[in-house]
Amino acid sequence: MFFKVQKYKFLSHTGDVKFQAFGRTLEEAFSNAALATISLMWDNKKIKKRIKYRLEKQGRDLKQLLVVFLEEILFLMDSQMFLLHSAQKVRIEKKENQYLLKAFFLGDRYSDKYETFGGVKAITYNEMRVECNSHFMVQVVVDV
Amino acid sequence: MIELKKINDYTWEIPKHGDMNVPSIVYASSKLLESIKGDLTLKQAKNMACLRGIQKAAYVMPDAHQGYGFPIGGIAAFDLEEGIISPGGVGYDINCGVRLLKTEYFEKDVRNRIQALLDGMFREVPAGVGKGGITRLSRKALHEVCAKGAEWAVAKGYGMKEDLQRTEENGRIISADPSYLSSRAVERGIPQLGTLGAGNHFLEIQKVTEIYESQTAKVFGIHSEGQILVMIHCGSRGLGHQVASDYIRLMENRYGTKNLPDRQLINAPIRSELGQQYYKTMSAAVNFAFANRQMIAHLVREVFAGVMGSSKGMDQVYDVCHNVAKFEKHVINGEEKEVCIHRKGATRSFGPGREEIPEVYRIVGQPVIIPGSMGTSSYILAGTSEAEKMSFASTAHGAGRIISRREALRRFRGEKIKNDLEEKGILLKSVSWKGVAEEASQAYKDVNEVVRVSHQAGIGRLIVRVAPVGVIKG
């Protein structure tokens, strides 16, 4: 049987929400971190894949790259009422002193047919971890 | 393990040691201290005390819990020459705050119309994730909102001039410079003016249940048990969150992330260009939040006018910031000195005589509005002169969480909470059941204990207790 990796799990944090996202690659861990983030606001499986955004982000290190990547979900949600279904074709590379990320966001514009709940205000650096042992793991605390 | 020295029943000290520049002072009862010890609050309080230019002590309020960088309920004041300013010391929801309106209605007047009032407010004030506001501003108009705050809203017909006098900073912090707002912050702000948001934000119809100091309460416009009040809790929405994120990144790129005990504590010298820019941009977000609450207050009055026939007597009691950095004068080592004070999850608590507070309140001290959790009491306190000496004029801001949202989701069901509240005579309307479960009152500290400690310690004076009769959850 094909071994299925857990995508993400939530950990205890008094005021905010802490999660770990996993992947066989760094890119997969980043994609799963996006799924963990949106799971706090809507059920991504119910969001139609009607709108596509192309993303190009950079960061001075992987932690900053992770913050700007996840922050884009919140930016598009607030400014375009865009509800993300999933991040696709995530690619990360290092160029000189910067990390570059390219990806596509698939999803739909908010309408009354979609149920949303909770609310993520920001992606923090608090207790953030980006690690690679047998697989990749990123840990994020989001401000809710 | 961080060692705490007991000063008295409500005051504890982390003595200065290691890299700490000052001690840290915690105001709590032994009961509240137990939950404070249960997470990283004290470690974060110690980290605050290590920051450059911090004055006197890093203070921790009775409702404190773990945050990021500073704890929620953390207060630090910095020297203007040596000190720093930190976006993590303000928080992402810049000028998250509370506005309180009084009415001249009584419980018996509204009892059969609570549902209609809630329905009206739910319709008029957009709440929850993904929804736009009542207006869609141009970029230029958004800049004006951020320059003028609640003044902008009043000039556009949302509310009354008198509201401005009864708002912290008169509803407009003059240091704001919206030209520093990033286009991302502007784009997040444009659709969101006049929206409540989600999470712990709410609109609540309340009744007065106890008056502790009737003279002071009267000055605040509260005269009788059973009197109906309306409380509005929200902030600067995505615009403020983006300002915080922008400046955390700009400061990281400028100063690097080494030598920080917690990356979220990134900061800039107050006197630096970047520090000044953050202050001016943060101030723009502060004004956005003032304008936001001003518009919501206006919508609430319109709903009352529609349902009850009139909104006469619905004067504003006060509007306070819970997340902000400001320049204020405080006495340090016997000398008055201007400092940059960060209040993250705390309320200003100026006592009688301070010129910053409205003239009508100058004899009694400013109103301090402390919301409870869903379905529990909330309180109105008055600021004290002791608070100016003890905590840079700061006190608690709410109940403070004790268990995580995930844990709350596991333990509680939104539908059941709604039914339980209804049995207690409290109607609830919400965007989602999950949001209700996450905000269950059992997930919070006992607000009664928080205000009791504020009162006993002397950083706030108990004036009025209120209970909800109708709640809208974002």
Describe the fold and architecture:
The complex is a heterodimer of chains A (144) and B (474). Chain A is of the alpha+beta class and 144 residues long. Chain A is built from two helices and eight strands. In chain A, the strands form two sheets. In chain A, strands 1, 2, 6, 7 and 8 form a five-stranded antiparallel β-sheet that branches. Chain A has a three-stranded antiparallel β-sheet with strand order 3-5-4. In chain A, helix 1 packs parallel to helix 2. The radius of gyration of chain A is 15 Å and the shape is globular. In chain B, strands 7, 8, 9, 11, 15, 16, 18 and 19 form an eight-stranded mixed β-sheet that branches. In chain B, helix 4 (114-124) crosses helix 11 and helix 10 runs antiparallel to helix 11 (273-308). Chain B has 16 helices and 19 strands. The radius of gyration of chain B is 21 Å and the shape is globular. Chain B is 34% helix and 26% strand. Chain B is an alpha+beta fold and 474 residues long. The longest helix of chain B has 36 residues, at 273-308. The chains are: A alpha+beta (144), B alpha+beta (474). At the A-B interface, helix 2 and strand 6 of A face strand 4, helix 8, helix 10, helix 13 and helix 15 of B.
